[in-house]
Amino acid sequence: MDFNERTKLLIDDEKLAGATVLVFGLGGVGSYTAEALVRMGVGHLIVCDSDTVSISNINRQLIALHSTVGRLKVDVARERYLDINPELDMRTRNSFILPENATDFFDSIGTEVDYVADCIDIVSGKLAIITECRNRGIPVISCMGTGSKLHPELFRIADIKKTSVCPLCRVMRRELRNRGIEKLTVLFSTEEPVKADGTCLNGVGETAGDGLKSGTGETAGGEQDIRTRIDEAGETAGAHGSAAADGKPEKAAGRVIGSIATVPSVAGLMIADFIAKELLK
């Protein structure tokens, strides 16, 4: 029996079987995006992540189990996805994307990519991915803030010009304009970020001194300010600085961002659904 027998009753699975999707980030959002695409029958998948599974990932990341702690996320993903679809053409990259290596990364893919999902947690990396996709004519959807939120029903998908509430969207709009990029499809939330006690964080969810001006959602200025680590494409977790000497992200300083299983998972599934429907057009 074909594992995708019931999917075929609803959609033209041949289009998905012939498609190539590149997913950046296998965290709370990206792990759900990638797996949903596999389960829907996408035949060619490239996943990129430089991180290992940690205990703190277990509450919300699909590939995070006690048995996978300490392992590379891309290795866990490969085993899991090939167990779902043994015929999947899957490639993994244990890489950390920043402006200085994004062009070489895309050059090294060596195949036509039909869609890109940006689910990473470094603003400068997100901008590098989006810029490369624009230059190469590759459709991309970028995930905005999912941390410090409790209401997955408030997620929306729209052009970034039509977003509201999300402080990361304000930062990204400005930085994209500086790069001559006017359009970008994003997943965002209309929910105000909340603290552990259920109250809003400074009105916009940012803290002073973390690379974003508290109360404005705008960067304080300069490339250094947008090298800020965020949770699963959510609110800033602290001043990131730059990549470490081994090319992997340094640990973020500052407060820990709250996240719950039902929020980033829904974001990831919505992104996968959007990509699949775009591929089926």
Helix amount:
25-40%
The side-by-side strand order for the widest beta sheet comes to: 3-2-1-4-5-7-6
Q: How many domains comprise the coordinates?
A: 1
Q: Strand-residue fraction?
A: 5-15%
Q: Structural class, from secondary structure content?
A: alpha/beta
Task: List the uncertain runs.
Answer: 202-227, 231-253
Shape: globular
What is the residue-averaged pLDDT? 84
Rg, Cα atoms, Å: 18 Å
Would you list the SSEs in sequence order as H and E? HHEHEHEHEHEEHEEEH
What can be said about the biggest beta sheet?
Answer: 7 strands, mixed
CATH architecture: 3-Layer(aba) Sandwich
Please report the number of helical segments: 8
- Strand tally, please? 9
Features:
alpha/beta, Rossmann fold, 281 residues, single chain, two-stranded antiparallel sheet, 8 helices, seven-stranded mixed β-sheet
Report on this model:
- This protein has about 280 residues and is an alpha/beta fold.
- The protein has one domain: Rossmann fold.
- Helix content is about 30%, strand content about 15%.
- The protein is built from 8 helices and 9 strands.
- The chain has a 7-stranded mixed sheet, sandwiched between helices. It has a two-stranded antiparallel ribbon with strand order 8-9.
- Strand 1 (about 20-25), helix 3 (about 30-40) and strand 2 (about 45-50) form a beta-alpha-beta unit.
- Helix 3 crosses helix 8 and helix 5 crosses helix 6 (about 125-135).
- The chain is globular.
- The model is unreliable at about 200-225 and about 230-255 (pLDDT under 50).
